[in-house]
Amino acid sequence: PYEEKNFEDLSLFENSSWRVGYIKSAFHKDLPEQLRRTESKWLLVDFYDLVCDIVEYHGGILTADSEVRGLKFFKQIKNECTVTSIDSVLDDAQIRERFDKFIRFIEERYGKHVVFIQADVKTKFLNYKRVLKPIRGYKKETLLKKKKFLDKWQDYFVEHMDCHVIDNAKKYHADDLCVSGAFMVHYEKEFYEKGYEQIQKIICGERDG
After folding, report:
1. φ, ψ for residue 175 (rounded to 5)?
2. Which 8-state DSSP code applies to residue 183?
3. What is the pTM of this model?
4. What are phi and psi of 194, to 5 degrees?
5. Cβ atoms of residues 130 and 83 within 8 Å
6. What is the pLDDT along the chain (209 residues), one digit of tens a residue?
7. Which of 94, 120, 122, 188 is 20 to 30 Å apart from 153, CA to CA?
8. Alpha helices, DSSP H only, in 41-170?
């Protein structure tokens, strides 16, 4: 839905080729083809985006966190966008169909070489004084609804996909000192350090075996 020529202007994307690729992929829905072209042996996956706001734009759907909405790219099109959420756009049957298709693809492409990193929606975060404060920008009821939604589909994935699971998020707080700032699924640095160690053990253990 977004004109291809506009992707050539990196200034619209904070001069980030990664952002261009991410937004192109979201609009074109070509992630499977991208993964087929890579030589990667492992896939790391999380479903953090399920609880982020999304925008509908001319039939396309794009995850629209605060960083995306701060881009010049988004400011160009925002008057033609509707901000919403996944569960408002798709019903359970449609989401399940997409999960099943994704699971079939990654089973075919990666086998059991998949590491699933579970998330946990928080209603409070640690501020710079290390005091717990309510997450900004969302009502508690909204956050709890997002938590229930995320838990449901994470559980569905684990039940239907034979993969390695890293489930640490429940042990940590959301943290304002996270490099991306306070958010319902941005955690204390120890969460990322421990996850990195576990990923190394999983992948290196498979190689050694």
Report:
1. -140, 130
2. -
3. 0.85
4. -65, -40
5. no
6. 567 777 888 888 888 888 888 787 777 666 788 788 888 999 999 998 899 888 888 877 888 777 788 888 888 888 988 888 899 989 999 999 999 999 999 999 999 999 999 999 999 999 999 999 999 989 999 999 999 999 999 999 999 999 999 999 999 999 999 987 788 999 999 999 999 999 999 999 865 54
7. 188
8. 66-69, 72-77, 86-89, 92-110, 140-160
